[in-house]
Please model this.
Amino acid sequence: MPTILGQNQYGKAENRVVRIVRDGATHHIKDLNVSVSLSGDLDEVHYSGSNANVLPTDTTKNTVFAFAKEHGIDSAEQFGIHLARHFVTSQEAIRRARIRIEEYAWERIDGSAADGSRRTAADAKHSFVRKGQETRLSQVSYDGERWQVISGLKDLTVLNSTDSEFWGYVKDGYTTLKEAYDRILATDVSARWRFNWTDDGQPAPFWEESYEQVRARMLHAFAATYSLSLQQTLYQMGSSVIDGRSEIDEIRFSLPNNHHFLVDLEPFGLKNDNEVYFAADRPYGLIEATVLRDGAQPQIPVDLTNL
Amino acid sequence: MPTILGQNQYGKAENRVVRIVRDGATHHIKDLNVSVSLSGDLDEVHYSGSNANVLPTDTTKNTVFAFAKEHGIDSAEQFGIHLARHFVTSQEAIRRARIRIEEYAWERIDGSAADGSRRTAADAKHSFVRKGQETRLSQVSYDGERWQVISGLKDLTVLNSTDSEFWGYVKDGYTTLKEAYDRILATDVSARWRFNWTDDGQPAPFWEESYEQVRARMLHAFAATYSLSLQQTLYQMGSSVIDGRSEIDEIRFSLPNNHHFLVDLEPFGLKNDNEVYFAADRPYGLIEATVLRDGAQPQIPVDLTNL
Amino acid sequence: MPTILGQNQYGKAENRVVRIVRDGATHHIKDLNVSVSLSGDLDEVHYSGSNANVLPTDTTKNTVFAFAKEHGIDSAEQFGIHLARHFVTSQEAIRRARIRIEEYAWERIDGSAADGSRRTAADAKHSFVRKGQETRLSQVSYDGERWQVISGLKDLTVLNSTDSEFWGYVKDGYTTLKEAYDRILATDVSARWRFNWTDDGQPAPFWEESYEQVRARMLHAFAATYSLSLQQTLYQMGSSVIDGRSEIDEIRFSLPNNHHFLVDLEPFGLKNDNEVYFAADRPYGLIEATVLRDGAQPQIPVDLTNL
Amino acid sequence: MPTILGQNQYGKAENRVVRIVRDGATHHIKDLNVSVSLSGDLDEVHYSGSNANVLPTDTTKNTVFAFAKEHGIDSAEQFGIHLARHFVTSQEAIRRARIRIEEYAWERIDGSAADGSRRTAADAKHSFVRKGQETRLSQVSYDGERWQVISGLKDLTVLNSTDSEFWGYVKDGYTTLKEAYDRILATDVSARWRFNWTDDGQPAPFWEESYEQVRARMLHAFAATYSLSLQQTLYQMGSSVIDGRSEIDEIRFSLPNNHHFLVDLEPFGLKNDNEVYFAADRPYGLIEATVLRDGAQPQIPVDLTNL
Model:
């Protein structure tokens, strides 16, 4: 046979599960998009079409919904751990499971009446508005022995309206850019961070608190860095996470440089004193890097932040 | 000539203008997407290609950016009024201008340090994170005499996890739906509301405050309505706006019914007590209606909420 | 009651129906996205939540799928006519139905073997690749007496690499654009055309042939027009349809001017002889107009081509 | 320093370059979206913000447009090779360049007149309509010594309306799926294939012809395979490419299983004899695998087909 099968995996992608917990009249909501990917002893389904080792993707979908009932959803990471363990331990042919989850945040609708009249806030207990900011991400991989958990986020759009410069760069025959001493710095943060938890014997991280703290550190570092380059800002964001969160050994970013060009208003007899900008779509700078705890081995794939 | 020209308009669409105001170290940001549409004495450009009456779309773009400096951007509506007045009054061939604006909200990044250390909150003064919830909309039309201002929003996603029923409906030979006595009600609010301000002689509404109040009323009515149909919820949302905001005479909604189907867990020996839902994409119910102040004439086009 | 209900409608949107016809071993495919919108005696569902007159949107969905079997899908327009007639004539409370359909075209996969070996072309008889060019559109409205059928398309992207100029326009204090005597003209055609067929007593148009002919005329007029403005090209496209297709009385276009800017290569010692262009995203010019048969009344809403 | 910098890269993404070649009155068009990514001696820009080794992303953009003039665009792959070589050989700090390119295909507008009248086909020589089917992809990487070229495509949607079964799979406690003996098989092909050309001393592949042949082989294998699983179809598609194209050693696919569910029409007294299907959006099965020439080492990253 001149051709052979390489890495392969399969499963049901984008299962949209919403879990409501009723704590008396007060409801809680978890809103996930879960993708299952399984690999193992699956050569034959590719070579001959025999499905003898194939748990249907429809079954992996059913499992996601059933587990939302059986185990609840404390966090996306914990939910992914339940699922990955199940597939690897219950199916002899499955050697590795990877669960990817997107999570959409909701906040409660303010129950106070808009018209100032007296109202009980009862409605606030089961009424939600989607937060609509970043999408939270997690990826749980399990091979029957060791865990790899990579969490992250995407589409968190941030902007500094000053304290950003760009100068002192290389100039070649294709360089026309003018140096900038006060520019807007804006990006859509896409980041993934890897936990050093790998073993059932270790205590697991507090997934929810960890997420909030990592997010806060990235935002704070973005805001607090006087930036000479987006790379410098990226590194400060990553260092703040690694320095402050002992459960995390590695973080990778893809940061588009969302250009805001100062509009030339001189033809109209106006001076643009860093006031009016054109927000461009494409092209954009794209800055990508991994920041690691000293001594840690990089494991986050180079393109994972682009997915 | 067997064919004739009907309604026509032109201009530059989607001018992405960002305006920074520096109030000492504290910066303020307005982030708009502005589309200009002009009509008037423009038959000849269609018939013969003569541009003698055509102000280039490039010029309408320049005007948007120049006006961001000349007039500032107090509100999207006020900015649209400046622009529409300019085109109609400065160009003899232009009889009518329509300015459509999308606005993206930003909030300040919390300046307190994530690590608890003492820091000045200086960074918070020029650092922003995009709010990323609904997109605010406004449309200003002017014919040289009267104004029409329609504001709105889209993509405000809301959900009630109980207090929604659906039963007592018509059944025909194609009906298989089972009645529901406790379901999730979820929608992405798309709404447009028309101000009764039409004349420069009248005092203009407080655009920013009005927007916040309309939004709060819609959210509150959504949360507070015990719903027997999404139409009923829509009407309550509309009534709350018309009743409470005297500056508004008409509001129109397009509300998709974002179906959340209770998953059948019985095949797995599990009972789903309104806990686990599948969030479906398509198809979706679509409920659309206008709510009017008694005596007002409807002017919002039927499809405007779909745009 | 200080507020009243205005125009309202409801139904199931985006029913994705695929119909296979097996003509022996040769299969045929129709791939539609069908949205149903009903209006009538529906005040009470808004005011009190009574669903006594409401045929569920779920039932309208079922009807779409059942009719694909009962009536087949000869054309999107004919399928919409079946549906609209059914809802209006079978439900006393429903006075008007509007069916919107998107259609996706497929072409057969070439059955000849890539390796040149002898093969029967049997596979080509049930194997398809999505054409992936424009989306075909149709909208059928019925009030129990008269029909209105509006067909159209969107996302048909065309480009002339020469024979386009733009000069002789108005210059005001915000004009900086230089005149162009040889530019790229490119647009994504969005068009809707109205048939003059309104009555069951009249012979219906040949919907499929009409679509192909209208599309061919628009493409040909785009290519054949030496353009002094995109408005002129639009009018030529519209006139060609009205002149050549007696079944159509009105056509409306929304044509974005997809700017292709000649890149300034002089800083690099290079001459750009209309060779290298930057294809910009936003902003873009937007040209919209209706072309009518002389004597016809315009009925296509101004924003329909934007939907 | 407790944190260190890992893999990093930067450049300008999504440069939209359109190149027109005028061969007398006959024009030719190449329409690309080019993303540049550079890495090398760039630690300092991350640690201190020094840009001393940083060629600005703006310069990489300028280079893309200048090279479209200087070298022309014979193929996306050849254009990427020119760019990658330039950055690595001209900038001492740059050790590796990766160029990613999307290509959009155009076809000529048929110049024959829609009305059957005599017309010269002159217009067809510079008039194009975007093909709008798959997007062609290429990625060229260079480290100063060896080349890696990975080409591919995405969004090529195909469907077999019969000759697909799915049965004989594993059943566990979460399995409810019924076996299928005649189903629709549909997918959006995303594929990347790696050339074994790595060295300037070797003759380069004929990039354009190779692309057409790979595409034809994938389509043909999809159509010709009587499928017992999507994995089997995938493997046949991959084998056909490796077997038939000696310049390619490895190919990877991500194939979503675009579910078309047979609609249950029995409640309406109708029999659905594989005629009416509901095309579902989410969830979908996702089948991913690499097919290799025997003896070749896999180099295409597992997630590249998802990008």
Summary: The radius of gyration of chain B is 24 Å. Chain B touches chain D at residues 173-174, 176, 267-268, 281-282 (CB under 8 Å).
